Amino acid sequence: MAPLVPKPRKSQALAIGPEHFVNRELSWLEFNARVLEEAEDAGNLLLERLKFLSIFSSNLDEFMMVRVSGLREQMQGLAEPEDRMPEALSLHDQFLQVHERTHRLVERQYRCLREQVLPGLAQAGIRLLDPDALPPEHQQHLKTFFQQTVFPVLTPVAIDPSHPTPHLRSRGLYLAAMIDQASYRSASTNRLLAVVHLPPVLPRLIRLPGEADSFVLLEQLVGTRLEQLFSGSSIVCWTTIRITRDADLDIDGDQALQDLSQAVEEGLKQLRHRDVVRLEVAPGADATLVAAVCRPLGLMPGEIYEVDGPLDLTVFNEWQSLPGYPHLHDEPFTPKRPVGLGEGANFFETIRQRDVLIHHPYESFGCVTEFLQQAAEDPDVLAIKQTLYRAGSESPIIRALIAAADKGKSVTAVVELLARFDEQSNVKWARQMERAGVHVVYGFVDRKTHCKLTLVVRREAGRIRRYVHLGTENYNAATSRIYTDLGLFTARESFGEDASALFNYLTGYSTGYQWRQFTVSPDNLHDRVLQLIDAETEKARSRRPARIFAKLNQLVDPEVIAALYRASQAGVPVELVVRGSCCLRPGVTGLSETIRVTSILDRFLEHSRVYVFGAEPEEEVYLASADWMPRNFRRRVEIMFPVLEPTLKRRIVQGILPTLVQDTVKARLMQSDGTYTRVTPAIGQKPLRAQLQFLGDPPVPAYVNEVAEQDLRV
Question: Does the CA dihedral 439-442-444-449 come out positive or negative?
């Protein structure tokens, strides 16, 4: 990333208006469209394409439950937006455009499944079959399986005045049918709506006997046997349905002040009864049947999705673990050990000598776990403190904290109970740690603790030394293998003091500390980011070298976007790598001509946040837990921290970042209208795929392994 001198501007600067901001919801849908492109890409292996179809489905579920449900409530006058955005579209227009775009994307998703992925997998030996077209021996197997395993579990419900409409679970799978029930009093029949819940305790994909990997869907098996469930009635028509409910967790403020964990559990129970925001039905469903299903749900136009294929494609995640198909997967890899932290390394010795940067998943997250395990075993370690946002269902990190508490160390865990969709898991872990003697703190009621921070306090030669780990990642061993992140180990005194002060704030509301290295939200992160952008703007105006680089997940904050526009108008080169939503419009004459926005969608989820301000060799390099969004600046506890060791700065600025921005295989370039075009190599240029480059050996230039004498000080 060579220094750039801003060029004099020739175009007249534009005044910044609402039309210069991309709608956040539509921008997010463009991100999910890029996920879908990976499924449609014939250059990807078949089971990887199926994985992206599944990710598209789970992403869309969350989008409907959170973003679209919030938009819906605002339209109905039931809620105010948490953040006011410069918006050229009315709420009604946003709602209509969101559903119109989503319908088109879902049609593409299922066309890809039907016409490309499933036929390709069938040729490779993995088949999804129609139960009605099976040979007699398989028909008999399904009959036996239904009678012995499925039938006893199902509960058929016919709806009439004495049997009211059952509660439909969000994201649950149901069969809905119209049945003609014989009357006990006359020869006539009563036509009733009936539903059958297909509970997750039953396998959704039923394997057929034989050598081939052949399956049928549970809903098709049950659908052909509904008359057994509704004995004495005739089945007029049936279809598969799935609903999605609003998942915005409401917490009772008074109860939260008494017991936040109990308030969260009560709030989770209330989610079961939130409004329905989407209904998915199988294609060709009878209109009368669909109308009967919709009647009690209060659906709005556009919220009914006719899906030509299995509802909820996450069902196919099961196929990812089928043995015998390595040629349909990306090649497996083994994360490398970071320099200085090889097998059996003493973490405290290494970190005491120099800072250590870890690039996940290319370098092992196991080092973070080993650091805590060594701390748990070390008799000189006095205390361990850690923030936990998403720990996962199986957590070696939490087991290490419990082991440390068992050995009598002072262990504190700040657990964020309101991490969306991880609330129940986090409540479970919090209570398990409490029983083991860990001091558990739940953070704040009005802001989420999203920073990633570990502090180990150790007694050494008559003094106390603090060891710190900070990162852009969650302390989740499972996601560490599929998310790209950066973590930093350091024993610098200034970092240790800031870490102690931050934990004092999280556990004891301690304030008034003057941060030495950390920038913390909601304290001063927003102001600091704006100051750093404005400083580059002033450099450009005075014709000095200037540059802004930011890699983040989402760029939404209107004040930051406006500051970037002003920087561009001054001539500052601005390079943004934004994985998801980006509300900034790049390349607009007189507004953002010097801004380039790319998005990389590949095997691993780009998750790291890296910010660089200034031109080499005087740049400032920061890592952060925060995206540039109002919620991160105002309603979360976040950290931005500098990378100070020169060799590590060089690794980021000369190794990692250039590789990302030079990607010509998996990068997409954002256009000023909010759409994206695929980046392709120039004529004669060798294609570069950044993530494959990082997976190579060595993953970074050799100079990053050097340790300069001046870097040994802490």
Answer: positive
Find the mean pLDDT for residues 57-76.
93
How far CA 136 is from CA of 130, 140, 175, in Å, comes to 13, 6, 25
pLDDT in tens, 236-272: 999 999 999 988 766 555 454 456 666 666 665 565 6
Per-residue pLDDT tens over the stretch 372-430:
999 999 999 999 999 998 887 788 999 999 999 999 999 999 998 877 777 888 888 88
CA angle 392, 426, 278 (to 5 degrees): 85
Backbone angles phi, psi at 468, to 5 degrees: -125, 140
Which of 197, 450, 469, 607 is the catalytic position?
450
User: Helix, strand, or coil here: 176?
Assistant: strand
Q: What's the 3-state SS for 295-348?
A: CCCCCCCCCEEECCCCCCHHHHHHHHHCCCCHHHCCCCCCCECCCCCCCCCCHH
pTM (whole model) above 0.90: yes
3-state secondary structure of 607: coil
CATH class name, domain 126-298: alpha beta
Distance CA 667, CA 676 (A): 10
The separation between the first and the last C-alpha atoms of the chain, rounded to the nearest angstrom, is 28
What is the DSSP annotation of 219-256?
Answer: HHHHHTTHHHHTTTEEEEEEEEEEEEE-------HHHH
Q: What is the pLDDT of residue 446?
A: 83
Listed in order, the ranges of the chain carrying CATH 3.30.870.10 are 347-514, 520-704
Rounded Cα–Cα distance for residues 670 and 693 (Å): 23
* Residue 584 three-state SS: strand
Question: If you ran DSSP here, which 8-state letter would residue 5 be given?
Answer: P
- How high is the pLDDT of residue 430? 87
Confidence band, pLDDT 50/70/90 cuts, at residue 701:
very low
Q: How far is CA 570 from CA 489, 533, 539, in A?
A: 37, 11, 9
Superfamily of domain 347-514 in CATH is Endonuclease Chain A (3.30.870.10)
**Contact of 687 with 663, CB cutoff 8 Å:** no
The answer to whether 275 touches 247, Cβ cutoff 8 Å, is no
In 3-state terms, what secondary structure has residue 175? strand
Whether residue 522 has a cis bond before it, omega within 30° of 0: yes
Active site residue 607: no
Chain mean position to CA 547: 29
Other CB atoms within a 10 A radius of the CB of residue 109 amount to: 25
Phi-psi region of 437 (alpha: psi -120 to 50; beta: other; left: phi over 0): left
Distance CA 332, CA 318 (A): 18
Looking up tokens 């028909």, which residue turns up? 139
Report the alpha-carbon distance of residue 226 to residue 605 in Å, rounded. 42
Say if CB 572 and CB 542 are below 8 A apart: no
Encoding tokens for residue 494?
């200034």
d(CA 589, CA 591): 5
* Joined tokens for residue 536: 């580059």
What CA–CA distance (Å, rounded) separates 22 from 4?
28
CB 55 within 8 A of CB 320: no
> Edge-to-edge, what's the strand order for the sheet holding 304-306?
156-159, 189-198, 173-182, 233-245, 276-281, 304-306
The answer to whether 616 and 646 have CB atoms below 8 angstroms apart is no
DSSP annotation of 271: G
CB contact burial 584-615 (16+ within 10 A = b; e otherwise) = bbbbbeebbbbbbbbbbbbbbbbbbbbbbbbb
Helices (H), 421-468: 423-435
Three-state SS string over 511-549 comes to: CCCCCCCCEEECCCHHHHHHHHHHHHHHHHHCCCCCCEE
Q: DSSP state, 211?
A: S
Return the pLDDT at 711. Answer: 40
Reading the block at residue 111, the tokens are 């066309």
Class of the 520-704 domain?
A: alpha beta
Q: List every span in the chain annotated with CATH 3.30.1840.10.
A: 126-298
